[in-house]
Specification:
Layout (H helix, E strand, L loop, with lengths): L6 E6 L8 H9 L8 E5 L2 H9 L4 E4 L1
Antiparallel strand pairs: 1-2, 1-3
């Protein structure tokens, strides 16, 4: 039985228009392109840091 990594669902709930460039890049790095799009990502410290940086733009569920 392999150890499957935990997943996090991240949804873009607020537009990136008018935000800081590095925040827009974080949203793109998470794989989010359009509003209300949801992606499922591995639960890693890097992903957590990106979510934390743009927490005002995204909704996250474990």
């Amino acid at each position: 039985m392999a150890n499957t990594p935990k997943k996090i669902k991240v949804t873009l709930v607020k537009s990136t228009i008018g935000t800081i460039r590095s925040h827009r890049e974080c949203v793109r790095g998470l794989g989010l392109r359009r509003l209300n799009q949801t992606v499922e990502l591995e639960d890693t410290p890097a992903v957590r840091g990106m979510i934390n940086k743009v927490s005002y733009l995204v909704k996250c569920e474990g």
